[in-house]
Design a protein that fits this description.
The chain is an alpha+beta fold. It has one domain: Gamma-glutamyl cyclotransferase-like (Hypothetical upf0131 protein ytfp, Roll), CATH 3.10.490. The chain has 4 helices and 5 strands.
């Protein structure tokens, strides 16, 4: 199955530890969404926003990887699954259930995300924009 990462799971080292079967395929953009950070965990989330985009990493994951991600993402309590079609392929990602107000991420978490942006060769401007609140 295909999985779209946009937060800490962009980090290749973290993904390889968490999901041993995962394969990074390429960077892609999720259109009409924006990146934000929220909840008591101050973690990444996406929300609909016209004419905006969220850069991320497209991974191929196994069923057992998906189960591990479900546990890590506290599915279905903290995150729910969101599906979209990318060039005819169904792609899964997670989005927070409760849309609380913006909350600046911890330095540790943000550094993991920044490394993920490097690993996937994503444009940092989208991350910077999400942090300007």
């Amino acid at each position: 199955m295909f999985y779209f990462a946009y937060g800490s799971n962009l980090n290749h080292f973290q993904m390889s530890r968490r999901c041993k079967d995962s394969k990074f395929l390429k960077k892609i953009n999720l259109k009409n969404f924006k990146l934000t950070f929220r909840s008591k965990y101050r973690a990444a989330d996406i929300e609909p926003k016209k004419n905006s985009l969220v850069p991320g990493g497209l991974f191929e994951i196994s069923k057992s990887d998906e189960k591990k991600l479900d546990i890590y993402e506290d599915y279905p309590v903290l995150y729910k699954k969101y599906y979209f079609i990318y060039y005819g392929k169904k792609v899964m990602t997670y989005t927070m259930v409760k849309k609380t107000k913006f909350s600046y991420p911890t330095e540790k978490y943000l550094n993991i995300v920044k490394q993920g942006y490097k690993d996937c060769k994503l444009e940092k401007k989208y991350l910077k924009r999400a942090l300007m609140f």
